[in-house]
Amino acid sequence: MKLIKYGKYTGEPADAIDLEELVKRLGNFFLQSGFESQFYGVSQMDPERSMEALREAILRALQEGDLLPDSAMSDELRDMLNDPEAMNNQAVKDLLDKLTERLANEGFINPQQPPQVTPPPQTSARGQLGQPQDRTEARFEITDKTIDFLGFKTLQDLLGSLGRSSFGRHDTRDLSTGVESGGVSRPYEFGDTLNLDISETLFNAVRREGAKVPIEMNYSDLMVHQCEYQSSCATVVLLDCSHSMILYGEDRFTPAKRVAMALSHLIRTQYPGDTLSLVLFHDSAEEVPLSELARVQVGPYYTNTREGLRMAQRILLRQKKDMRQIVMITDGKPSALTLEDGRIYKNAFGLDPFVVGQTLEEVNKCKRAGIMINTFMLASDYSLVNFVQKITQMCRGKAYFTTPYTLGQYLLMDYMSRKTKQIH
Q1: pTM to 2 decimals?
Q2: Residue 356 CB: number of other CB atoms within 10 A?
């Protein structure tokens, strides 16, 4: 009788990897901002995302360890991954192909097959011969699911570093009727949320008619609970994408993008009445959909702060919110200005008095419109301190001189801790 011996099924190594942890490890690759690029051109707003580059990024993540559990990591596989020629190993190629396939199936990436173009055939004595097809490198795009996931993970990490924190809403000193009791009851008025204070309502009726059954109630007996009035806020993130954001051996733009994504996730999930818009400023300024935030890159640009403030004002003045604010993230001094005839005046050396004066005039317009500006400086150059202090003094805002590593903590703390003194 033939015996069949079964062993324990361990599964494929690619199936043992947590995809969410892999996407988190690939965050910097997905959000690359041009820091590793050597050339800058018009293609910077549409970064190259080849499948081969993705496979290399996955391999680096695997080589860092902890992604594959010990049960799936054999000595042979570990040696293959750590081999300098790992990309030429067929087993490693198969592993990377399966992981990219899983990422696509789970909706984290959207593979894009290159177009196949067949030139007109050549005519020969025996018929027609088609020429080889022109195959370009396969590409991929990250999906909204990946962008949302990375924003959530960034927010989770930032809130964890802050310790215990209450999301809440934006508190004010005013009271309104609602579900949560926050103060003494008051007589019901037409239009109030009908959240009755039963005991006070009955007491009014008994006090008027005396203790008898049935209790007859009038409109004037009705009492409703009061809750804290919660305001709404319109925010524009003004993000500097000038060339200096990736200079001096440090990538400041990618952390700034992460924080903006985390803020977007926070507002969407915890402050549904708030709005968030994104404006990039460089030689000029433009509003960018939040869904495109992860894909933008820096360029060979100057810093036109005034134009960014102008666009932010136009966006905020359309919003009917109790609070309106600009969150400006930058690392450099204003170095460009849009003239009345549309030309751009540029001066990268020092704080040009003409540029500074026009920029501060725009800040003054924000003040008159009731728009607060909070500035997050990713540099601490002495010449910039006075300029930023003038901005904060003019519009009741705050200035934070921080680093790419602490930017998120400061920004979220500021957003979640705004109290009565800041909006009254």
Answers
A1: 0.67
A2: 19
